[in-house]
Amino acid sequence: MFSFRNVAAAMALAATAQATTNTLTFVSTDNVARTVYITPSVGVEGMDPVTVPAGATVPVNFAEGFIGNAYAVQEGKENVPGMLAEVNFQGWGGSTYFDVSAIVNSADTDNVMMMYPADAPNTPTSGCNPFPCNNAYYLPDDVQTKVTDQTNIIVTLGGGSANTTKRDVNSAATGKNLPRNLVELKY
Description:
Keywords: Signal. This is DNAse1 protein. The chain has one helix at about 5-20; strands at about 20-30, 35-40, 50, 55-60, 65-75, 85-90, 95-100, 110-115, 125, 145-150, 150-155. By secondary structure, it is mainly β. It has a single domain (about 25-180), classed as Sandwich (Thaumatin), CATH 2.60.110. The model is unreliable at about 1-15 and about 165-175 (pLDDT under 50).
């Protein structure tokens, strides 16, 4: 038997399920504007590049289950992929998996720097400031992927001070590392 109460409850449940917003929040920590290029996994909807002005914070929302990466290019520089911010939203067990990867271009030490959950203090970070460090991927078989139940991940850009962020990320660089296949692109 259908009732208004049952329909309303089902609609509320559906709204709650759809309320999860997957976000990479790009935080510029210096005085350089950048364009962020986002590459999705095959079969996942792509998106246009995003401009992050110097010193600005720009959130970018993603579809449920998004798997992909992002890299940044400084204004006026050639578009060459560099340090990658890799993410898998609603991955295994419904968790978010993320890491900073230097595999493509470890010489890029001025763009993507760190990743960490925005709303979960004392959680693991990936990446570092400055590079190099032992908290990023340099080889495909490194074990550096981080996991969280959060769906808003901060990605710092530039080597400036991260004082625009909510917490001291360096104190939270510890945590369990997971295999790379949890966030790598599937071709």
